[in-house]
Amino acid sequence: MATSATLTDSSPRPARRVGGEGSVTRAAILTAAEHVMRDEGYAAASTRRVAARAGLKPSLVHYYFPTTDDLLLALFEKGAAESDAGLEAALAAPDPLRALWAALTDTSRTALALEFMALANHRPGLRARIAEHSERMRARQVTLFDHALGERLAAEGACPAAGLSVVLAGIGRALIMEGALGVTGGHAEARAWVEAWLDKLAPAGAPRRD
Amino acid sequence: MATSATLTDSSPRPARRVGGEGSVTRAAILTAAEHVMRDEGYAAASTRRVAARAGLKPSLVHYYFPTTDDLLLALFEKGAAESDAGLEAALAAPDPLRALWAALTDTSRTALALEFMALANHRPGLRARIAEHSERMRARQVTLFDHALGERLAAEGACPAAGLSVVLAGIGRALIMEGALGVTGGHAEARAWVEAWLDKLAPAGAPRRD
Amino acid sequence: MATSATLTDSSPRPARRVGGEGSVTRAAILTAAEHVMRDEGYAAASTRRVAARAGLKPSLVHYYFPTTDDLLLALFEKGAAESDAGLEAALAAPDPLRALWAALTDTSRTALALEFMALANHRPGLRARIAEHSERMRARQVTLFDHALGERLAAEGACPAAGLSVVLAGIGRALIMEGALGVTGGHAEARAWVEAWLDKLAPAGAPRRD
Amino acid sequence: MATSATLTDSSPRPARRVGGEGSVTRAAILTAAEHVMRDEGYAAASTRRVAARAGLKPSLVHYYFPTTDDLLLALFEKGAAESDAGLEAALAAPDPLRALWAALTDTSRTALALEFMALANHRPGLRARIAEHSERMRARQVTLFDHALGERLAAEGACPAAGLSVVLAGIGRALIMEGALGVTGGHAEARAWVEAWLDKLAPAGAPRRD
DNA sequence: GATGAATGAGAATTCATTCAT
DNA sequence: AATGAATGAATTCTCATTCAT
Question: Distances from the Cα of A28 to the Cαs of A35, A41, A56, A198, in angstroms?
Answer without folding.
Answer: 11, 19, 9, 40
